[in-house]
Structure prediction request, 281 residues.
Amino acid sequence: MKKFVGVLLALTTIMVAGCSSGDTATPTSSTSTSSETKSETKSETKSETSDTNNETSKVWVIATDTVYIPFEYTNENNEFVGIDVDLLAAISADQGFEYELHSLGWDAAVAAVQVGQADGLIAGATINQERKDSGWIFSDGYFDTEQTFVVELNSDISSFEDLRGQNVAVKNGTAGASFANSIKDEYGFTITVFEDSPTMYQDVILGNSAACIEDTPVMAASIKSANLALKIPENMANDSSAYGFAIMSESSYELLDMFNAGLANVVASGEYQEIVDKYLK
Prediction:
């Protein structure tokens, strides 16, 4: 495609120069006008080619978590996969943009976008007002979920009241952590913060915490795939909310617009549902 554009612009230069020479009134004027036209045309051609190369060479850097099953994780074949991973690939193909996906862990991924080392974040990030107020700019929602408390397989805990006097494990900076903090005083439990989900799960399995809190589809998939000795009690979840792709700089609005447009297209085509079903059914 780049070679085709270069040939086309070169032909345009020759044609324009030829027309300028033929339309002049005197030989002296003709020579001057032709030379100026060639110079201007070459300059314009160089500028246009440079602009085209800049556009085509743009590679967006997108940060994500390391383990957040089924949205992003490394499978048994050492492949980085998940709903977020496949959805981003489908949207990129639909919109024709290039990207690099960096699996950094939740905290590091958020920090990378905040300081401009990454252009966007896709990591099962819940859309909420607290994040918007702190500078997160979200896409349209692409997956609805809720946050639920999770307990050890043989635990008798079945309600928020049963958490009184107990400790709850949470993952730093997540919607689940916000939910737990919002009700800890009402139900009288303490909180321990972890940097990743697997360590948080183990804290409950080992009996150090009575419960942890996680997004329901993530927890269900993790229990199933890793055969974790955990269970999800009924009626211990918050209201449903949506995940969104996020940017934190106005310079990335182009990427956000392409994400939204591509999301709408893959939903309409049925490809979105195929991706979700691949990991949840």
User: Anything to note?
Assistant: Residues 1-54 have pLDDT under 50 and may be disordered. The longest helix spans residues 27-57. The CA atoms of residues 103 and 198 lie 16 Å apart.
